[in-house]
# Entry
Amino acid sequence: MKLEIRNLTKTFGGVRAIDDVSLDFPSGSLSAVIGPNGAGKSTFFNLISGAFPADTGQVLLDGDDVVRLSKTARMQRGIGRAFQVASCFPTMTVAENLTAAVTAHVGQWGNLSRRFPPPGVRERAGEVMELIGLSHVANVEAAILSHGDQKLLDIAIALALEPKVLLLDEPTAGMGPEERWRMIERVRGLWEQRKLTLIFIEHDMDIVFRIASTIRVLCYGRLLAEGTPEEIRNNQSVIDAYLGTEAHAE
Ligand SMILES: Nc1ncnc2c1ncn2[C@@H]1O[C@H](COP(=O)(O)OP(=O)(O)OP(=O)(O)O)[C@@H](O)[C@H]1O
# Structure
């Protein structure tokens, strides 16, 4: 699914968090959004997912403007999102969390409190678990998972809703180097397998340069540059505003 952003703007008080940003994300593309702290990256995701209303501009999904739709309606149209901080039910197991997400997705909220999920739901939850590599912890409570597995669960919950466009806000935040690469390889695998239009925010430039085919740089709410890893690495304004500083180091 193709995502096009047209002249998107959002202000908070006097701050232009996103300032007239237009960007195209072709169907099946893998893009990174980078930029210094406070550049507007999370706000950009919030405007796409519908967590915040935009002041002006359009969010087009395969040509249809969804900017006035609610978060839930956008989710139903195919926009999925996983967060910096895991958003699962901590006292439920991995399998239960996914079963709940799939049940909700198939419009069976009323069934959530029942002992047995509706037909097909358990299988679908199992598929997502397999796909993301969490089957070995299916019966473990979310709260006691490792940090990396909690993030994977968060992505799995987003995937249970069968998104076409997936937004990942710092999927590797807080992970050690080894766990980080494992996570990113899994994300790349998902993107390939599901033919997702995937957009991720990331501060680790090694990861960004290694896996993104296109990089978009935000700075003070504006689009500073976009291009291939090679183009961005050599872009003087990006070096001045971001890469040449320590701002991207965690
Ligand atoms: N809910 C909000 N209310 C008021 N101001 C906000 C809100 N959300 C973001 N802002 C402001 O908008 C600007 C952009 O913030 P945003 O969190 O989108 O940046 P970011 O690039 O994601 O930063 P970071 O890399 O630190 O996560 C900042 O000046 C921030 O203070």
